[in-house]
Amino acid sequence: DLLGVGVIWSQPSSTTKTIYHENEYVVETFYSMQLLPTLKLMPDFQYVQHPAFNAKHDHSFVFQMQLTLEW
C-alpha cells in the first residue's frame, strides 16, 4: 500500500496581455491499495484553486478512481 500527497503551483500566463489566468494551485492526495498480486486500486482526490480556463469558478474538486491490472 502507498499513500501520497502533493502540491502543485502552475503559472498558466505570466502576463496580462491577450489571455490572463491567475496562478493555479493544486493539492492532491492518493492511496494505492494492492487488492491481488496483479490488481491495484488507486483513488485520487485533487483540490484546484483558480483553475485555468474556468473563469466561472474559483475552485474545483476532482476525484478519480484508477484500477490497474498487471500481468
Describe what you observe in this structure.
This protein has 71 residues and is an all-beta fold. The chain has no helices and four strands. A four-stranded antiparallel sheet has the order 1-2-3-4, with no helix packed on it. Strand 2 (24-36) and strand 3 (39-49) form a beta hairpin. It is elongated. The protein starts with a strand and ends with a strand.
In short:
With 71 residues, the chain is mainly β.
Distance between the termini: 19 Å
Q: How many H/I helices? A: 0
**What is the mean pLDDT?**
86
Strand content: over 45%
Q: Enumerate the strands of the largest sheet in spatial order, edge to edge or round the barrel.
A: 1-2-3-4
Low-confidence stretches: none
Shape: elongated
Order of helices and strands: EEEE
Main features:
71 residues, 0% helix, mainly beta
Topology:
Elements: E1 2-10, E2 24-36, E3 39-49, E4 59-69
Antiparallel strand pairs: 1-2, 2-3, 3-4
